[in-house]
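WARN  no MSA supplied for this record, continuing single-sequence
INFO  ligand: magnesium ion
INFO  echoing inputs
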Amino acid sequence: MAEQLLAVNHLSKNYGEKQALKDINFTVDKGSVTVLLGPSGSGKSTLIRTLNGLEDFQAGQIEFDGQVIDSKFKAWLPIRQKIGMVFQSYELFPNLTVLDNILLGPLKVQKRNRDEVVKQATDLLETVDLADYKDTYPRQLSGGQKQRIAIVRALTLNPEFMLFDEVTASLDPEMVRGVLEVILGLAKQDMTMIVVTHEMNFAKQIADKVLFLENGSIVEESSGSQFFDNPQTDRAKEFLESMDF
Ligand SMILES: Nc1ncnc2c1ncn2[C@@H]1O[C@H](COP(=O)(O)OP(=O)(O)O)[C@@H](O)[C@H]1O
Ligand SMILES: [Mg+2]
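INFO  complex generated
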């Protein structure tokens, strides 16, 4: 049996009166890809952010890599070191070169050896076809290039777990494929990931498991192939029909 990296048990989260996550339960095996699908406002970003300690929660618990995290938990720092996250907006520092953007966390936060990190960053830039860009500034890059840099920046911190929240949503269509290829490459290397995406062909290709959310609840949980070929709930069927792919 595959080893489990994450277990979410009865997780609930409110923003004031609004219940954004309602009794969420699922597990993530090491090396697997979980795709979160659901309409806008269903709680996908909230769930991803809660898993990384960027949002508090009121009930339930998260078990990550053997560490039990309840609603009172405070010691997120060492956990966040193991979790990489890439959002829709890339937020590179405009005054730093590509390489310096990537080096910042490993050197300042992880206190690692510069030569070692430069080597790793250079190798990773090569894998995303951006080796020639290490001395350029973010403003000289396209959105797709910036997003690939943001992924390299996260990977250079050696995460055990990657969270992707609609990383291609703000890109021009011709930039999308290159970014998705990088994520597919990570899946082939057995990186454990949760991916939120509206790119349905990509989701179908990459998902070991699909969690379909609506109004803060998991409405359907299936294997990737089952969800796309034979969705069980009417809501999932309607959602897939509306996605037109
Ligand atoms: N910071 C916030 N404060 C209050 N409500 C929020 C906040 N962030 C999200 N919400 C609400 O929580 C629900 C889930 O939002 P979100 O997780 O962003 O959904 P999704 O990512 O699936 O589009 C929505 O009703 C949204 O309006
Ligand atoms: Mg969202």
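The chain has a mean pLDDT of 96.
INFO  checksum written, moving to next record
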